[in-house]
Design goal:
The complex is a heterodimer of chains A (180) and B (445). Chain A contains nine helices and no strands. Chain A is an all-alpha fold and 180 residues long. Chain A folds into two domains: 76 residues, Orthogonal Bundle (Rna Polymerase Sigma Factor, Chain: A); 85 residues, Arc Repressor Mutant, subunit A (Orthogonal Bundle), CATH 1.10.10.10. By secondary structure, chain B is an alpha+beta fold. Chain B is 25% helix and 27% strand. Chain B contains eleven helices and 21 strands. A seven-stranded antiparallel β-sheet of chain B has the order 4-6-7-11-10-9-8. In chain B, strands 12, 13, 14, 15, 16, 20 and 21 form a seven-stranded antiparallel β-sheet that branches. A four-stranded antiparallel β-sheet of chain B has the order 1-19-18-17. In chain B, helix 5 packs antiparallel against helix 7 and helix 10 packs antiparallel against helix 11. The longest helix of chain B has 20 residues. Classes of the chains: A mainly alpha (180), B alpha+beta (445). Chains A and B meet through helix 1, helix 2, helix 3 and helix 5 of A and helix 1 and helix 2 of B.
């Protein structure tokens, strides 16, 4: 890569690294793993930078690569996440101590509850939720990123939200399904 | 709760950013390393130590066995004797000194090298691609007042093809290979002599391809050290001159002199023997053919009896033979033998975790493959190879990162990798060649 290309690559990294890291964190629930995912994503982006720049699609390429890296990583047995907060009798129960609305952001248990709940979801389902409700992508955009049909994104979103609702112990997420 | 509330929930979850976010410089360093790792250069010479580098250029993780120097007589991965013969002050390996065609190439090339180019003392001028395949020589050269700029120069000769201008990597790059997608410079077209010419620079690798109705030449050079581009150490004009000189040598020889490789037609006919070799080497019980249901099926003819799926151009002995088998325990075994029509063609395959681009220059696939398959890819000549893959589902512990600190290699995985290596060696030694298979052990002849 020529230095001039490295300059534009550096600009992209400076501008977008933190956002990628946050998305990676919501996908995997661990800052260290998120950093690994972003590092691998950006290394792949570097290799493809000239091509990506020509298409003026750095954001899209980085997002798609991050997703692939995350999904690929989630298949590796030595890195698979395990939900830790399950009932000792083996049944699922609401995670954490708060019984309030999960949108109660002042509750320090909320963050842990959300991440634990997300960790219970299959990788692609989790990715759908993060892309739809964190990255604000449309159903069609998510379908394109995940190489599936729009209907699949909708059904995965509904299932993911159902699952979150079950795990978070609240019914308020049900409202969101109506907005799909 | 609505869309905004859940987004706020996500936002709250990421408020605790990590204490030490990564630095752009580190990302650039990792990117450079990854790119370098993709472009595995086979910096090959016939001198001691070069053989291990050859093996390290494999597309997929190589078996430790394939790194054992001299394990197979005549293997391209074996160390060649380093006895040097002197000609015009330059050290020559015995392979070059004793081969009239290689001597011709050497004399032609050495006569047109830039005046300020010097030969490194070691290794001597040797053969690029082992002693087999198409004629080739490799020179370890130094340039500059202090000889502080070093590079390797490889020259390959091969038969010409009638469709000279079919290879247009600058305007129509092979879609599955990234090397030709983003060269720093790339030129293609006819010369004043009506030769088809391609000249490209990809980072520290330079390549000039020159071809006419008689012969084909590849001039390829790799800069040692990362601070200079290929054209900074050898200009494309100089490379053109070298290519012209080598092509003149090729024009004086017929195709029989310029080609030596796998007899793919004969290999297909002998496929039951190939299957038996693999079966014996793997020692995993009988192998049952699996009908292909992947992209490998496209264009091929499948024989359900032997499991061979063949796509061969009989005239040029180019194409692929692949077969998928399953063991009694349900492991998938892939065997792939391929030979390029042109030495400079990019060869990619659904069942190969990467692409062979130029002789000694391979790409790894961007996909992670190492953790579920034990695979051994053996380059046979500059334009052909054998790959045996066992889909084991086991981790090799090296999942696509040069900095990985993941789990150590699974011992079961290593055992499978050894089996794949045995199988690859067995196939290599027994497949029919155009002429005599130089890999065949003396006691098997």
């Amino acid at each position: 890569m020529l230095k001039i290309d490295e300059g534009s690559y550096r600009e992209f990294v400076v501008a977008r690294r933190r956002a990628l890291l946050r998305t990676a964190y919501l996908l995997c629930g661990d800052w260290h793993l998120a950093e690994d995912l972003v590092q691998e994503t950006l290394a792949k982006l570097y290799v493809a930078w000239r091509r990506v720049r020509r298409r003026d699609d750095a954001d899209g390429y980085a997002r798609r690569t991050l997703l692939n890296v995350y999904i690929d990583n989630s298949r590796r047995p030595w890195r698979r996440e395990h939900a830790t907060d399950t009932a000792t009798d083996g049944s699922r129960q609401t995670v954490g101590v708060s019984t309030g609305d999960p949108a109660d952001l002042a509750d320090p248990g909320v963050r842990h509850r959300l991440l634990s709940a997300l960790a219970e979801l299959p990788a692609r389902q989790r990715a759908v939720l993060v892309l739809r409700f964190w990255e604000d992508l449309s159903v069609e955009q998510v379908a394109d990123l995940l190489n599936c049909r729009s209907g699949t994104v909708k059904s995965q979103t509904a299932r993911g939200l159902d699952r979150l609702r079950d795990l978070l112990g609240t019914t308020t997420l049900a409202e969101m399904k109506e907005q799909l | 709760m609505n869309h905004e509330r859940l987004r706020a929930l996500f936002a709250d979850a990421v408020t605790q950013d990590p204490p030490s976010p990564g630095l752009p410089d580190d990302d650039i360093t990792r990117g450079r390393a990854r790119r370098a790792r993709h472009l595995r250069r086979r910096v090959a010479g016939s001198g001691a130590g070069a053989a291990a580098l050859v093996a390290a250029a494999l597309v997929v993780p190589a078996s430790p066995l394939s790194l054992i120097e001299g394990e197979r007589d005549g293997s391209p991965n074996s160390v060649q004797p380093a006895a040097a013969t002197s000609l015009d002050g330059a050290p020559l390996s015995p392979e070059v000194a004793d081969d009239p065609l290689l001597l011709e190439m050497w004399e032609a090339v050495s006569a047109v090298l830039p005046e300020d180019v010097h030969f490194a003392e070691n290794p001597p001028v040797g053969v690029s691609q082992g002693p087999y395949g198409t004629p080739s020589i490799v020179l370890n050269l130094q340039r500059g007042d202090n000889g502080d700029r070093e590079f390797w120069l490889n020259i390959y000769l091969a038969p010409a093809r009638p469709d000279l201008d079919a290879f247009r990597p600058c305007t129509n790059p092979p879609p599955t290979s990234f090397t030709w997608q983003e060269p720093d410079e790339c030129e293609e077209g006819r010369t004043n002599n009506d030769h088809w010419r391609i000249a490209a620079e990809v980072g520290t690798t330079g390549v000039t391809i020159l071809e006419n109705e008689s012969a084909s030449v590849i001039v390829q050079w790799d800069v040692m050290g990362a601070d200079q581009s290929a054209y900074e150490i050898l200009s494309k004009e100089h490379a053109d001159t070298i290519a012209d000189a080598a092509l003149a040598v090729g024009e004086r020889h017929d195709n029989d002199d310029l080609f030596n490789g796998i007899d793919l037609v004969g290999t297909l006919a002998a496929w039951p023997d190939v299957r038996a070799d693999v079966e014996e080497a793997l020692d995993l019980g009988p192998l049952t053919p699996v009908e292909p249901d992947d992209g490998a099926r496209e264009g091929g003819v499948f024989d359900p009896e032997t499991g061979a799926l063949a796509d061969i151009d009989e005239q040029w002995q180019s194409g692929t033979i692949t077969a998928r088998y399953t063991t009694e325990d349900g492991l998938n075994v892939d065997v792939l033998i391929w030979q390029k029509g042109r030495l400079y063609d990019t060869f990619c395959h659904d069942r190969l975790a990467g692409c062979a681009v130029l002789p000694g220059l391979s790409e790894e696939s961007d996909e992670t493959t190492g953790y579920h398959a034990a695979s051994v890819y053996t380059p046979i000549t500059g334009g052909s190879g054998v790959a045996v893959t066992l889909e084991t589902g086991l981790s090799d512990g090296l999942p696509d990162s040069e900095e990985s600190e993941e789990a150590p290699p699974d011992t079961a995985y290593l055992e499978f990798e050894n089996k794949a290596s045995y199988a690859s060696n067995a196939v290599t030694e027994h497949i029919p060649w155009v002429g005599e298979n130089p890999y065949t052990r003396a006691d098997d002849r």
